[in-house]
Amino acid sequence: MDLNRIFTNQRTGKSVATEASRTDYQRDFDRIIFSAAFRRLQNKTQVFPLPGSVFVHNRLTHSLEVSSVGRSLGSAAGEFIFNNFGKELSPESQSFYQHNLQNVIAAACLCHDVGNPAFGHSGEDAIASYFEKNESGLKEKFSPKEWADLVNFEGNANAIRVLTHQQNGKDDGGTQLTHSTLASIAKYPCEAVAKDKASIHRKKFGFFQNEKDTFLRIAESVQMLQDADEPTAFRRHPFVWLVEAADDICYNIIDMEDAHRLGIVSTSDCENLFFELIKSENKSTGRVEDKLAALGNANERISYLRAKVINALINKSIALYESNFESILNGSLNRSLLDIYKDGNRSLQEIESFSREKIYNHKAVVEIENAGYNVMYELLDHFIPPILKTADKRKSYDKMALKLLPHQFLYENGTDYQKILGVVDFVSGMTDNFATDIYRKIKGIEIGMTM
Fold first, then answer.
1. Cβ(92)–Cβ(75) under 8 Å?
2. How far is it, in rounded angstroms, from Cα 405 to Cα 96?
3. How far apart are CA 140 and CA 202, in angstroms?
4. Cβ neighbour number for residue 124 with a 10 Å cutoff
5. Is 38 within 8 Å of 193 (Cβ atoms)?
6. Between 258 and which of 42, 56, 152, 234 could a Cys-Cys bridge form, CB atoms 3.0 to 4.6 Å apart?
7. Which of 398, 425, 383 is nearest to 170 (CA)?
8. CB atoms within 10 A of CB 168
């Protein structure tokens, strides 16, 4: 790949670059911060139920922290590219890698989760399984590729839709981000029918059929490498690895800190796991031990160790990015940076194994996933049958159901596929509280006026 051609300030929609004190990539960051889709992340579950008396991470705080880590990774990667490939770079490219790659990665990290439904991964599962369980009555209404989108519903693909799709009455191009930022969140740059679990870039899928043309324009503008055997599948863009690493670093470590604050993980277990990872990357840990001895508060001790662990993982991720840069550019790398690191570091393996056993299978987490699955499934079942009926076939209860759908999600003149996506947009965009509130009202569990 030509390092001069893998970034662009071209945006979705009809927006054109304008003179401003901020760069185009800084403007991406600001547009995401002020978007409704980003704001809604404040009440979407990360891992633990919300709200509670103990503050834990939600999707918004997680995204902010991933963005902070991503900015550090982008800055270091930009410096590496400038120092090692500077003679091959145009003046514009030199400036980009020195000053703006960090802004692209920070913006991409900020919006990497905007397509995720309420209630964590159980929300995704509910949407996909709704179509699987109702295949006999629905599948015939869609093309094979459209049906593949629905039965494999994926938050990553939905993020591209949320950020680029023009809703009824709204501006063309969605949030109108640069193609550079959008390409950086495309972990799985292929359509649903091209999925292949053996390939890291096709393990899931990255765009719906409705956004296919938009994604192809993005891929072309940043010179993404096309798979030889699949016309609608691409190798990952080089910036994706940095966004993925930032996300992996944060959820591996921050979930442990949250579990400690909730009393799910003991202070000694958390300290030992974090300290062992720090020790694996540092010959001397005297300063860390001295600092811990001076801190009497358990939460403060864990916060300090968490910061040291994240710093160690940032440094290791950059080292791996640099050593694998050639295979990243030619599209041959088939493992994430942290997966490569785990092979040689038992401490991170133990953190992941401990989290899986003690955190992700904890009763409170399993309960919210079960409840969330049922809420999301029932909401889809309330709206999808009515939207697929023609106006003359709708009964009064169908019409009443559709009155709850905001205008921007109603595509009455579209295909059945577009109508369904409108419903999915509405339901997947809901916060945990809003989804639960609507569910309780339509089921008659709660009756009365609320604003």
1. no
2. 43
3. 26
4. 22
5. no
6. 56
7. 425
8. 13
Q: Which tokens hold the place of 1? A: 């790949």
Would you report the helix, strand and coil content of the chain in percent, each value rounded to 5? 65, 0, 35
Burial of 21 (0-12, 13-18, 19+ CB in 10 A): exposed
Which two tokens mark 108?
Answer: 């991409």
CA distance 31 to 28: 5
Contact 173, 179 (CB under 8 A): no
With bands split at pLDDT 50, 70 and 90, how would you rate the model's confidence at 239?
Answer: very high
Q: Under 8 Å CB-to-CB from 376, ≥6 apart: which residues?
A: 117, 118, 119, 122, 123, 126, 127, 427, 435
Cβ pair 182, 160 in contact under 8 A: yes
For residue 266 the two structure tokens come to: 């003991």
Question: Tens digits of per-residue pLDDT, 346-363?
Answer: 999 999 898 888 888 888
Helix and strand tally (H, E) in the chain? 22, 0
Tokens of 333: 């790398």
Task: Mention every residue, 6+ apart, whose C-beta is less than 8 A from residue 321.
Answer: 73, 77, 80, 241, 242, 245, 328, 337
**CA-wise closest residue to 138 among 451, 348, 380, 402:** 380
Residue 428 has pLDDT above 70, yes or no: yes
pLDDT digits (tens, 9 = 90+) for 28-59: 999 999 999 999 999 887 766 554 545 678 89
Rounded CA gap, 193 and 48, in Å? Answer: 33
SS3 annotation, 152-206? CCCHHHHHHHHHHCCCCCCCCCCCCCEHHHHHHCCCCCECHHHCCCCCHHHCCCC
Q: What percent of the chain has pLDDT over 70?
A: 96
The residue with tokens 């062992």 is 276
Q: Which tops the pLDDT comparison, 125 or 19?
A: 125
pTM over 0.85? The answer is yes
Tell the burial category of 10 from Cβ atoms under 10 Å away from its Cβ (0-12, 13-18, 19+). Answer: middle
- The arithmetic mean of pLDDT across residues 231-257, rounded, is 93
Residue 451 has pLDDT above 70, yes or no: no
Tokens 């968490």 -> residue: 306
- Domain residue spans in the chain? 240-362
Smallest CA-to-CA distance from 282 within 322, 312, 250, 310 is with 312
CA-based nearest residue to 236, from 227, 245, 228, 247: 227
